[in-house]
Specification:
single chain; eight-stranded antiparallel β-sheet; 6 helices; membrane; MHC class I-like antigen recognition-like domain-containing protein; disulfide bond
């Protein structure tokens, strides 16, 4: 059996390559949308107290001053974003989040942590849309570059990363309205926005001429070929034991 395993494994290599290609294709169908908030308590005169950096599939697309409601930059997606009805609503929600975080910041007590200079809260809201349309949302909260607290929007679970956030976790966890707010923004609002981004990118990249073979037909052929290799790999050692 050991002698027959090596040739059989070599014949299975095309199967492994096909499967790895499928895996990469599935990962390519997953899209992510991130918003990084920076909230400064008692900022210096003339300094922004609320700034948002937006990323789609880990590429910067938005810089927004949520304190003064000014878009600083939009990047190469400007035309596509301005064409969507959700663009204005998106800025409204981001500003609302910034204001809510600013209200929570003064009453937030941190243990075993003494910041240098004005307290700077950093929050990352993210949502991911998988190939099947499922949305996963989450939040990360930190201070001065250190992660303190995590929130899983799908199951409403809080997790302490830094010991100094234990009191912060207890306070925010008991605030049901705040928990629902974070969940709604990351799953509801962010989830609806992320569905728009891939749609607009795909439209801008559509070929002028239709392909000769549909994607569904190509996938069916690939699956059929893979199943044939599976069967061959399984039965070959028994049919040719002397190889």
């Amino acid at each position: 059996m050991a002698a027959a395993a090596s040739p059989a494994f070599l014949l299975c290599l095309p199967l492994l390559l096909l499967l790895s290609g499928w895996s990469r294709e599935r990962r390519a169908d997953t899209h992510s949308l991130w918003y990084n908030f920076t909230i400064i308590h008692l900022p210096r005169p003339g300094r922004q107290w609320c700034e948002v950096q937006g990323q789609v599939d880990q590429k910067n697309f938005l810089s927004y001053d949520c304190g003064s409601d000014k878009v600083l930059s939009v990047g190469h997606l400007e035309e596509q974003l301005n064409a969507t009805d959700a663009w204005v609503r998106q800025l409204e929600v981001l500003r609302e989040v910034g204001q809510r975080l600013r209200l929570e910041l003064p009453g937030t007590e941190l243990e075993d942590f003494t910041p240098s200079g004005p307290v700077r809260l950093q929050a990352r809201m993210s949502c991911e849309c998988e190939a099947d349309g499922h949305i996963h949302g989450s939040w990360e909260f930190g201070f001065h570059g250190q992660k303190f607290l995590l929130f899983d929007s799908n199951n409403r679970k809080w997790a302490v990363v830094h010991a100094g956030a234990r009191g912060m976790k207890e306070k925010w966890e008991e605030d049901r309205e705040l928990t629902v707010f974070f969940q709604k923004v990351s799953l509801g609002d962010c989830g609806s926005w992320i569905r728009d981004f891939p749609m607009h990118r795909e439209k801008s990249l559509e070929p002028t001429a239709p392909p000769t073979v549909s994607s569904g037909t190509a996938q069916l052929r690939a699956r059929t070929t893979t199943l044939m290799f599976c069967c061959l790999c399984l039965i070959l050692p028994f049919l040719l034991p002397g190889i």
